[in-house]
UniProtKB/TrEMBL annotation:
Belongs to the ABC transporter superfamily. This is ABC transporter ATP-binding protein. Residues 6-237 form the ABC transporter domain. One of its GO terms (molecular function) is ATP binding. InterPro entries: AAA+_ATPase (IPR003593), ABC_transporter-like_ATP-bd (IPR003439), ABC_transporter-like_CS (IPR017871), BCAA_Transport_ATP-bd_LivF (IPR052156), P-loop_NTPase (IPR027417).
């Protein structure tokens, strides 16, 4: 049996005639925390969508927990334990916080129910104070916490966060980073896309940098820190 939860190989994805992902290999092992980096427009979100079945690659393969899943619909990928929090906030604005969370609840692929409604509220005390509020009454930060809370209620094996701290006040962003750490400690793998490479590399085991749809660096956080010219060249920091 494969220990890789996500194993994407030689992915080529196009939007119309534009060749966006150019032969990308990307894998996630159980328990691994991965930073996916690169400047705007380099293909990070397209790679995540290609994995989740939201965009169909023209060639390559996507295996999820050892099963060939390329071209399968997003709900099938999700059912194999992959929770995806896209850019922007995908909550149900007309439902309350309680409803948003309880609707998402299910056991994980191994029957695990580590993340219960109670545990999510303990982890996100801000949400606890807003239980009866509709999703659209929440601040941007609270909405983001709700989307992450919903993702955790599915008891995933992998949590994918695409720009989760984007546009949030520093204190709220710090709370999201704290949650990433908690997720890591519970043994859930994660893929984190975020502009703040310092925060990202504090918690990641491995980092992947994309430039124009190709992987130009892959390595541990210490390896990346030891090569500041890469950060400068590829991330512009
Ligand atoms: N739906 C789309 N249709 C056409 N081009 C797109 C679409 N989404 C993204 N792109 C283009 O694909 C490239 C990669 O975008 P994206 O994956 O969103 O990058 P990133 O997440 O790294 O900022 C960019 O040039 C972007 O303009
Ligand atoms: Mg993006």
């Amino acid at each position: 049996m494969s220990t890789l939860l996500i194993d994407a190989k030689a992915i080529n994805t196009y939007y119309g005639a534009s060749h966006i992902l150019r032969g990308i290999d990307f894998r996630v092992a159980r328990g691994e925390t991965i930073g996916l980096m690169g400047r705007n427009g380099m293909g990070k979100s397209t790679l995540l969508k290609s994995i989740m079945g939201l965009v169909k690659p023209r060639s390559g393969s996507v295996d999820i927990a050892g099963q060939p899943m390329m071209g399968r619909p997003p709900y099938e990928i999700a059912r194999l334990g992959i929770a995806y929090v896209p850019e922007g906030r995908g909550i149900f604005g007309n439902l309350s916080v309680v409803e948003n969370l309880k609707m998402a609840a299910r056991a994980g692929t191994r029957g695990q129910r580590d993340w219960t409604y109670e545990r999510v509220l303990e982890t996100f005390p801000r949400l606890k104070e807003r239980l009866g509020h509709g999703g659209q009454q929440l601040s941007g930060g609270e909405q983001q916490m709700l989307t992450i809370g919903r993702a955790l209620m599915t008891n995933p094996d992998v949590l994918i966060l695409d720009e989760a701290t984007e546009g949030l006040a520093p204190l709220i962003a710090r709370d999201i980073w704290r949650i990433c750490q908690v997720v890591r400690e519970t043994g859930i793998s994660s893929v984190i896309v975020d502009k703040n490479w310092k925060h990202v590399t504090q918690i990641t085991d491995r980092n992947v940098i994309l430039v124009k749809g190709e992987v130009v660096f892959e390595g541990s956080s210490p390896e990346l820190h030891a090569r500041p010219q890469l950060l400068q060249q590829y991330l512009g920091v």
